[in-house]
Design goal:
Blueprint lengths: L3 H8 L5 H18 L3 H21 L10 H8 L10 E3 L8 E4 L4 E11 L6 H17 L7 E8 L5 H17 L3 E9 L7 E12 L14 E5 L4 H10 L1 H5 L4 H8 L8 H10 L3 E5 L3 H13 L3 E4 L7 H9 L9 E9 L2 H10 L4 E7 L6 E4 L5 E4 L7 H11 L1
Parallel strand pairs: 4-5, 9-12
Antiparallel strand pairs: 1-2, 2-3, 3-6, 4-6, 7-10, 7-11, 8-10, 9-11, 12-13
Protein name: AIR synthase related protein domain protein
Keywords: Membrane, Transmembrane, Transmembrane helix
Family: Belongs to the HypE family.
């Protein structure tokens, strides 16, 4: 099994005293566990990891995962090369896909992601997810992807049969969504390792009027959520650590949670909604549903009311997130699409007809940029963007237990 903790520690861009101390203490805990001091080791592991997170937040190191909005706005956004007028949607925090005006009534949409391959899933199964992570992002534009360019920087330990299985998996997943590879680069290099093994770009061309953009969001638009929260957190955790969950869930609940893996795509959600008409779509990745809602509000400059009595959650997701003590509403959820549209009822009905759970959970209300949760008793609570996604806490905890 790949130790992602070690991979991330090695590949961090800076090394600090905090990280060295953290690594030393983790080694000490492994020794305690080896000597059968399991309760001390388990408690100490959780305490040290949480302390590390707190100390790390005050350091000048870059955090794991996507960079934060402040760093994006300070370093990336002001330095994008030559500004071009035909770019309709450029890099923005909370916006998934760029859009370029082709000056003929059509637009070109573009999105890049890492190639994310987790061998524990099996190379073919992992390849399906790598394709759908990217396809889901492109589909948030309202324009389906049609072309792909892939750069594979593979680790030396990959075997020929594993590479073939992975590539055939990519081919089959792309064929399902009618996307063709038109270029790329493939090589094996020292210093690379799973799960990030390169870069993946998809392109789509479509009618300009169908393009979803923050500027199209209007007061009165409906806000739709598909599938519910923590789809990806549930699918990944149960597929990475199946024995842990088999021992703690009944068979039916485990199977439903385990098969949540195949719901970790919102390509179909977006395709259905775009045929009817959308103003903006965003998939609920890191930060989960509540993170996605706040990102939509910030990007559009509009406020949003979300109604507690309209929120829904899959029963297997509820059980898995309860077991690992994470909040499902702020946990990573590739597969969940947030759709802003003026055709809310029609979009919802079309999604349900195709077997996709969907509900109108709120509406666009004003220019504030705030997201307010309207509780069942009528009180209102502001939804803040989560500071961290609790999925990673659960991931590291289970990695230390199994």
């Amino acid at each position: 099994m790949i130790n992602l903790t070690s991979v991330n520690l090695v590949t961090r861009c800076k090394v600090s005293i905090i990280e060295v101390l953290y690594t030393f203490l983790r080694i000490l805990l492994y020794l305690l566990a080896f000597l059968n001091f399991h309760s001390i080791a388990t408690y100490g592991n959780d305490l040290i990891y949480l302390t590390f997170l707190k100390l790390h937040s005050f350091s000048h190191l870059m955090h794991l995962g996507k960079i934060n909005e402040d760093l994006f706005n300070k370093v990336i956004y002001p330095h994008l090369g030559e500004k071009r007028t035909e770019v309709l949607v450029g890099p923005q925090h909370g916006v998934d896909t760029a859009a370029i005006d082709l000056q003929d009534g059509r637009v070109l949409v573009v999105k890049t992601d890492p190639v994310f391959i987790v061998p524990q899933f099996g190379f073919k199964k992992a390849a399906w997810f790598a394709v759908h992570i990217l396809a889901s992002d492109v589909m948030t534009s309202g324009i389906p992807p049609q072309y792909a360019v892939i750069d594979l920087n593979l680790p030396p330990k990959i075997k020929d049969d594993e590479f073939e299985e992975m590539w055939i998996g990519i081919h089959e997943a792309l064929k399902e969504i009618e996307v063709m590879v038109v270029g790329g680069h493939t090589g094996v290099y020292e210093g690379t390792d799973y799960p990030m093994v390169g870069g993946f770009t998809m392109f789509g061309i479509g009618e300009k009027e169908k393009l979803g953009m923050p500027s199209k969001v209007r007061v009165g638009d409906s806000v739709i959520m598909t599938k519910g929260p923590a789809i990806e957190a549930t699918g990944l955790l149960t597929n990475l650590y199946p024995e842990y969950f088999k021992q703690r869930l009944d068979k039916e609940t485990f199977n439903e949670a385990y098969n949540m893996y195949w719901k970790m795509s919102c390509w179909k959600d977006g395709l259905i909604a775009s045929r009817i008409g959308i103003h903006l779509m965003h998939d609920a990745t890191e930060g989960g549903v509540f993170g996605a809602l706040t990102e939509v509000a910030r990007a559009s400059g509009k406020g949003m009311n979300v109604y507690e009595d309209k929120l829904f959650i899959n029963s297997a997701v509820r059980e898995v997130t309860r077991l690992v003590n994470i909040d499902p509403w702020i946990s990573i959820s590739e597969g969940t699409m947030i759709i802003v549209t003026d055709k809310g009822k029609d979009v919802r009905e079309a999604l349900i007809k195709e077997g996709i759970e969907a509900e109108i959970i709120g509406e666009i209300v004003d220019q504030s940029g705030d997201v307010m949760l309207v509780k069942k008793d009528g009180s209102r609570v502001k939804i803040e963007h989560p500071l961290e996604d609790p999925f990673w806490r659960a991931f590291f905890y289970l990695a230390s237990k199994t």
